[in-house]
Amino acid sequence: MRRGRVVRIEGAPPPADPGGARVSIPSETRHPMNPSQTRNRRFVLAERPVGEPDDDTLRLEEEAVPEPGEGQMLLRNVYLSLDPYMRGRMSDAPSYAAPVEIGETMIGGTVSRVVASNLDGFEEGDWVSAFGGWQDYALSDGTGAINMGKSPENPSWALGVLGMPGLTAWAGLTQIGEPQEGETLVVSAASGPVGGTVGQIGKILGCRVVGIAGGPEKNAHVTGTLGFDACVDYKADGFPQALKDACPDGVDIYWENVGGAVFDAVMPLLNPRARVPVCGLISQYNATSLPEGPDRLNLLLGTILRKRMTMRGFIVFDDFGHLYPEFAAQMGAWVREGRVRYREEVIDGLERASEAFRGLLRGEAFGKRVVKLTEA
To answer: Which of 7, 30, 97, 177 is most enclosed, with most CB atoms within 10 A?
Structure first.
């Protein structure tokens, strides 16, 4: 047997609901876990989208369930993570990672159960966090897999606050934002899994935190449940002035998830030596051309120079993956103590993943969106 890489998440599991929420959106079809199932449903990339993905971008296919070879394990994917970065993997434009090829299974993080294993450190019945993709079953050689044990509480949280989104928030804010007590932190997409976690960490570290979100329900969640000091609705009339009013002392740290008009409203408020971790630009992911209007590049560069600001993009596992053990210990403690709250939106059924992903890009998700593929 080949020996796999085994990483276990230590410490007591989080409580069932430390002030967060789990919203389930059921499907008419149920797919109970069946070890004898012989067919594997999978979404493959059928064509590269121009603009927003549509019904023709991904195709649902069936194939035989694969058999694990030496040094492999067969995973039954239970939860699939939906994340904005996946839109970039559908494109063959230059990027930090290779695109998904036409006809290949769409990539994605999963929480899975081991069905069969020829890999040391992983046994039948183990829960595993891996990159199993948009499919019912996946083979893994253990690369990037995290063994979660036999009975973790809230296993899907390994795709959210205790996984990649949580690490993104924690590492990006602490390593790039470098928050200091009393500073003002502004967070775009504040009701999402990354933005919501960024703001709560900022509060723990002593910042005044202002969120930006879309609509009254999300804004109320950001202030009422997540504990931000204020939240501004970017969809409302007078958004730039409302944001200015919410930040009377300017902005010391701006967490960039969105780009576009939201960044335009933040930029004049940035203080000298402000830090801007650039996590995402979701407003631009489906764009087919440059935004309309004048070229503001020189204005941005002049602002960076004059205010001696720091703007830095990052790819979380490339730049900060080595910090995962420290993150897991710290975030696990905060979640157990109820200091970080988490909202999860569960879509029932693999067949609904494509539309659920498109809704995510349209801003329809409320919290971390995952797809439940089977009953564990």
So the answer is: 177
